[in-house]
């Protein structure tokens, strides 16, 4: 889990808890074993180690007759670092790591082994992790591009007080390789760089890839401390025989023959060797008494129980069960020297993975303690004796349990053994309580429970209260994550149950205290409306308004699609000054055969004739590249603008500096006014007759007006005819001038 820590005091058994950090998808052939800063630490001639040419036996190929071929376990898991030279800079950015790179690894084919940095343990005290604890988080902020560049890499030991990276790329997410990388974090160099390595292996310079020779340099005694342990061919920190080889069958490291004439296997990535465990325990001064317990049930006791523990004993037991479970300790026997505050002989139980975890109890005397239950899946138990008055000791049974009462404002609930399959026939009940005045929000990160129509086999049940009779919030099974859940109070009851048959991966859910920010006196800081969401809230605006950049204030919405025949358009924020950095587009659409006219009532924008800062742009049709009527700015009102068709586009833009009052414009939609005028002059003795062959309508109202000069400024005496009916013939006699006009009126019926 993120935010946890690794234990460094390894048990005497090889059953060691390791966490694999699997970042994908990048395969990567190589690593950086040393950089220039690291090379300076050697304080030696870089070529001094290679001045001697190897003899014929040294130029060994693994397939040669009479030679032992490396076993599968000894196959290299490392690769050439040619690729990393190109993108090592990106690797240095991982997890906020310092600039200086210490070590990277990656597995692959034997033809391309890698160079990991030197092993044996560090002799520099500042690289030892305080308390034997390595805090870590699993980063989740990698982009796809960065994930593609992720490699297998690690610093050696602790690097200052800030964050440092360890990444596990594609093909590295295997136990042995993860254990190898964690070995570097703990403080191990590579075994073959020990100062005494020439007594145990031969480096074959001729077979090393060009440019990779530095990976085979010896370290000085002042930089490495083997803590009295002998050279370990079986170490998980040892190179394979063909690491950085020019060819798959060429050796770069050749073990010397033992007394029986056999060359030991090297480069295994299967397990921690006994030497690895011994060195780690020495490096971090782990107590000789105690162990790490990882079974779901077990027991332990004081040394010598029941015959009496020795004086000045120091033992540490670390219990780790599957995530989602807790640990219950039951003391069945207790007999320790009793002192005030248990100052001398005592057994101490802490709720976590190290000696600074919260104290659950400190016990001495002969009174059996009440059962102790952890709040998580880890416990630290430490026993010390310092007196010469000794008792029998103690005996403890432990078991993993699930469920329980939880009193905190945020946390995670997991099915037992998550992310591995949950156990059969489990029943876990959690009773969650957060602070008064809050609700509880629950979100699911993963969900996979055996499916059934009625969720009768395996299921998760959530209730709005602390009892099985509280109102049901949900009864879930299957493979789809449930929707987010919100309680009506500060209490929730959760039950997970599995039957005896099919098991799945289970679930992981986060809970947290939830409040309704919209119920606060300031309405959540929202100017208009506040909508509460799970874990947060959001501000919204009335129709016609939109949120400003602060996501709380509202301003008049800008732009839109308009189909009304007439109306008014104003700049955003009207009648106040318009805001900066706005881009608004109004698209006005009228019926076919209509035209749209704009008449500006107010116009005041930043700018001059150039109109490069703030401006209004008017176009016929709706596209940004359609016919332009004009681009306007300044304080001079544009003339009336009429579209060429039934669409018009009006765009307003403001820059990030000066703001003005803006504009107010009225738009009108109507039939397009057109006319055809003809005049016929005849003699006074003649008559004028006008007849119609056709009278089609090009709109809703085609009118025909006929008048004489005498009627121009007086009551019109001649008829007005409307299409589509064919007008009657008209006749005028005398000395009149006949004038005919075709008019498409802009007035509606």
From TrEMBL:
User: Could you tell me which Gene3D superfamilies the record lists for this protein?
Assistant: Collagenase (Catalytic Domain), Laminin, Spermadhesin, CUB domain
Q: What class of enzyme is it?
A: hydrolase
| Location relative to the cell | Secreted
- GO MF annotation list: calcium ion binding; metalloendopeptidase activity; zinc ion binding
* Residue positions of the active site: 181
SMART domains in the record, alphabetically?
CUB (SM00042), EGF (SM00181), EGF_CA (SM00179), ZnMc (SM00235)
The superkingdom listed in its UniProt entry is Eukaryota
> Quick one: where is this thing mainly located?
secreted
Question: What is the name listed in the Swiss-Prot or TrEMBL entry for this protein?
Answer: Metalloendopeptidase
Q: Which organism is it from?
A: Junco hyemalis (Dark-eyed junco)
> Which classification does the entry list for the species?
Eukaryota, Metazoa, Chordata, Craniata, Vertebrata
């Amino acid at each position: 889990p993120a935010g946890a820590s690794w234990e460094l005091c390894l048990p005497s058994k090889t059953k060691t808890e390791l966490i694999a950090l699997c970042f994908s998808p990048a395969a990567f052939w190589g690593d950086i074993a040393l950089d220039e800063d690291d090379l300076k630490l050697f304080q030696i001639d870089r070529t001094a180690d290679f001045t001697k040419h190897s003899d014929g036996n040294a130029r060994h190929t693994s397939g040669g007759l009479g030679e032992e071929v490396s076993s599968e376990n000894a196959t290299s898991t490392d690769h050439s670092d040619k690729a990393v030279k190109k993108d090592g800079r990106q690797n240095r950015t991982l997890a906020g790591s310092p600039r200086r790179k210490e070590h990277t690894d990656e597995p692959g084919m034997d033809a391309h082994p890698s160079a990991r940095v030197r092993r044996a343990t560090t002799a520099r005290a500042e690289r030892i992790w305080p308390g034997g604890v390595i805090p870590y988080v699993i980063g989740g902020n990698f982009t796809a591009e960065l994930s593609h560049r992720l490699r297998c890499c690690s610093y050696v030991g602790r690097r200052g007080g800030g964050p440092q990276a360890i990444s596990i790329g594609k093909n590295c997410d295997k136990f042995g390789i993860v254990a190898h990388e964690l070995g570097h974090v703990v403080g191990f160099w590579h075994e073959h760089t020990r100062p005494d390595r020439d007594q145990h292996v031969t480096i074959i310079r001729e077979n090393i890839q060009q440019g990779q020779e530095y990976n085979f340099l010896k370290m000085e005694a002042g930089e490495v401390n083997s803590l009295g342990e002998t050279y370990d061919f079986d170490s998980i920190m040892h190179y394979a025989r063909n690491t950085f080889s020019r060819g798959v069958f060429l050796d770069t490291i050749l073990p010397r023959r033992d007394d029986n004439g056999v060359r030991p296997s090297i480069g295994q990535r299967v397990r921690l060797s006994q030497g690895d465990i011994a060195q780690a325990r020495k490096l971090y001064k782990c107590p000789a008494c105690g162990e790490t317990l990882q079974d779901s049930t077990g027991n332990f006791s004081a040394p010598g129980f029941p015959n009496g523990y020795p004086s000045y004993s120091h033992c540490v037991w670390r219990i780790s069960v599957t995530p989602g479970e807790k640990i219950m300790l039951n003391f069945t026997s207790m007999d320790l020297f009793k002192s005030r505050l248990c100052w001398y002989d005592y057994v101490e139980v802490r709720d976590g993975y190290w000696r600074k975890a919260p104290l659950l109890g400190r016990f001495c005397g002969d009174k059996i303690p009440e059962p102790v239950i952890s709040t998580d899946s880890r416990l630290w138990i430490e026993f010390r004796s310092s007196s010469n008055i000794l008792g029998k000791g103690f005996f403890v049974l432990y078991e993993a349990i699930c469920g329980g009462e939880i009193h905190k404002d945020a946390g995670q609930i997991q099915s037992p053994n998550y992310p591995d399959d949950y156990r059969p026939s489990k029943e876990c009940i959690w009773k969650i309580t957060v602070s008064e005045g809050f609700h509880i929000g629950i979100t699911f990160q993963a969900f996979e429970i055996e499916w059934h129509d009625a969720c009768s086999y395996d299921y998760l049940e959530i209730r709005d209260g602390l009892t099985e009779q509280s109102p049901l919030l949900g009864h879930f099974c299957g493979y789809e994550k449930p929707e987010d859940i919100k309680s009506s109070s500060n209490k929730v009851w959760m039950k997970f149950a599995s039957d005896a048959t099919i098991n799945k991966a289970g679930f992981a859910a986060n809970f947290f205290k939830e409040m309704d920010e919209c119920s606060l006196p300031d309405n959540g800081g929202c100017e208009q409306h506040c909508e509460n969401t799970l874990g947060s809230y959001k501000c919204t605006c009335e129709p016609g308004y939109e949120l400003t950049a602060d996501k709380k204030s509202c301003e008049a919405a800008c732009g839109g699609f308009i189909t009304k025949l007439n109306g008014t358009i104003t700049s955003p924020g009207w009648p106040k000054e318009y805001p900066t950095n706005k881009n608004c587009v109004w698209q006005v659409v009228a019926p076919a055969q209509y035209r749209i006219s704009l008449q500006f009532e107010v116009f005041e924008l930043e700018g001059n004739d150039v109109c490069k800062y703030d401006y209004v742009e008017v176009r016929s049709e709706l596209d940004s590249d359609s016919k332009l009527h004009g681009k306007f700015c300044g304080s001079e009102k544009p003339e009336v603008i009429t579209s060429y068709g039934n669409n018009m586009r009006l765009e307003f833009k403001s820059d990030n500096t000066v703001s003005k009052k803006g504009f107010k414009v009225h738009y009108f939609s109507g039939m397009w006014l057109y006319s055809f005028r003809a005049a016929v002059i005849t003699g006074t003795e003649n008559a004028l007759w006008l007849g119609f062959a056709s009278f089609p309508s090009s709109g809703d109202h085609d009118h025909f007006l006929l008048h004489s000069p005498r009627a121009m400024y007086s009551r019109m005496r001649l008829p007005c005819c409307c299409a589509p009916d064919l007008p009657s013939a008209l006749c005028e006699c005398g000395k009149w001038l006949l004038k005919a006009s075709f008019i498409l009126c802009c007035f509606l019926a």
